[in-house]
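chain below, 737 aa
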Amino acid sequence: EARLRVNRRADLVRESFAACVENGGRCSLRRRGLDDDDAFALASSLADADSDTSLARVCVGMDLADNDIGIAGVRAIAEALRLGTSRAVVAVSVAGNPGGETHPHKTPSVDARILHGCCAANLLRNAGEGEALKSIGDRALGDEGAEEVARYLSEERGYSHRHRAIGFQHNDIGPRGARALAEALAGLPNLDEVAMYSNRIGVEGAKWLAKWTVTKCRTLRVLDLGGNGVGDAGCIALAEAIVGHPSMEELHLDHNGIGIDGATGLLGAMQMTEDSRKGRGLRRVWLHGNDGVPEELNARVHAIARRNAGAAGEILEQIPRDDLAALEAWEDDVAMEAEGEAVKAGGGSLPGGFKETSTLFANRVAAAAAAAYRRWFPDHAANTRGTAVIAAIVAHERDASSPFDAPGHGDRLRVLSLGSGTKFMPREVAAAAAAGGARRWESVVHDSHAEVLARRAFLRMCYREILDIARETSTYKVAGAAAPWRLLEPAGHAGGFRMRPGITLHLYVSTAPCGSCSMPAMAGGASNRAFPSFAMRDVDDVPWNELWSGVAARHEAGVFAPSKPATTVKGAAGRGERAPAPGVVFARLRDAEKVPGVTLSCSDKISRWQALGIQGAMLSHLVPTPLAFSTVVVGRKFNPDRLRLGTCCALRGFASSAAALRVHLPAHCAALGTTVKLEGSAGAGERIERSHSNRADAGDGDESLTWARGDGTRSRHDGRTGGPVGGGGPVAAGSRG
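prediction:
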């Protein structure tokens, strides 16, 4: 029997090794009934650096959740990682094991936290310069895991000296862990940014960070301690440390229980730095969420920060121009691949098959967006966790020489813009930006939801095209054409510009837009019909040749419209308040316009674009005819009735009011669902492999990304602040500045 147990554990190691080889270094042993002896066998293989068939050679991640491994087994695996022979292992899950959790709250045990810390240290070892930010956030480190990371930072200077930005957010780190990290971080010669928000470091932790990290690390530029309960005493300690600091320019102390004493101390430190003209001086300070700080005191703090920022002469981000000839060559290369992806995804409910249907068109739009996403946001595509939220504006052009408007007759799809993001500026942050004057208000991106970012990038492309046409400076050449492909052309007779004939615009969103498009059935008096994707015939699930011409008639005949459209704005519902859909609340329209920090839901914004034009008020002086989407294509959470009501059909029945106000009713757009996914298991559309080695560029937190056709690279900014990631650098290209 003992021999059988030995053989079984040897087989377990061989099986794990083979799985790692096959799956890029990762293996799953979830719910296998493994015990401590099995964990000992795995740990022994992880510690064996000599054998060619040891897990130390191939493993980067292991899922041991929901087994029967005790404290001794978890400790053995942690000790194996501590030896340094398995430095590629960056994730080991022991949740659901007796040794991995502390009952009754199922919080990670001490040994599990140490194990998480060892994995986090490995992750930092493998991260290059500037790539560590966010890389060890949300890993349940606790104090014990934080001490493991601090040990790595202090003892392995050959690796740790490279780190410029490290994130410890959402890790349940207390004062003890904060002290260990503070002392270790003080020795990093190139440290630029530390994010430690949403922990529990308290007053003592803030004092240790002030004493060691801020005082001794003279390169530190950004410190984010939001949501840590540092209180007045912690705020004063940090304030004393920043006086005359040569590099510090951004400090986050939001939601920290700070009152008048702490804010006054911070104001005094900023005044001393300003008066002495020594040190850089804070340019951005987050104090919102501290109810004890009077508004007048808050305004004085932000006034000094604005003066410091103005003296620094912040400039607009410069996006290099792309080689349009090379871009068009790439578009030609990926066109066939995207077509194949669209057909492979399948879908639709029309009898007679999938060929030449609206669902095939939706899949083509989604596949084109996915190809552009992988090209322009490659790090985000490779490393995003969970579900990516992506939006794209896509142009469809029918071949003028073909009498048919159907796939395979020379039609083309071109992605005009991309956006990725899920954040918007909190009301307190937006109010502070508005108080800074027009220049400050225009220099930040107020709404960083993907649809809004894609539209802002689209505007950037339109302005660039108009400049190129007006200046007639384009020298790009492509085969068979004298000029690069463009969306716009001169209208003639001083009529500005217009979209070229034969082109239609289409919005792709990887998940349903927030607001009305995401409301559950019956919310806000809406339709009680909730169709799951492709479960039954839908009014927009039609043959291809009916997609463009009959959309308005289909909607008028087959869509139920509520008696009164409800306005929704982004935000969380308060206590006792009913949220109509995730992430939005009801509001009166007059309370939702031109109020800093109050932003319409994406559904309402799309409806407004359909009525007034995607180009907006300023660009409408140059492109007077409203541009509208012909279709809206949605991946996850697709409900055709909700999508139509949220984008074009909610105002049906109000034609007389619209005429009296001299405004357009929203242009009807077909509501289409796609079976092409940007992430998921194999066979469910395009797969995004997730790794943990470079999560800094994954954008899975506050980072937001934009790209416009003609841009040589993507632009990135912080969705919470609306400014540059990390607080420094030029004004984001996605802003109005």
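The two ends are 74 Å apart (CA to CA). Residues 324-345 form the longest helix (22 residues).
thats it, cya
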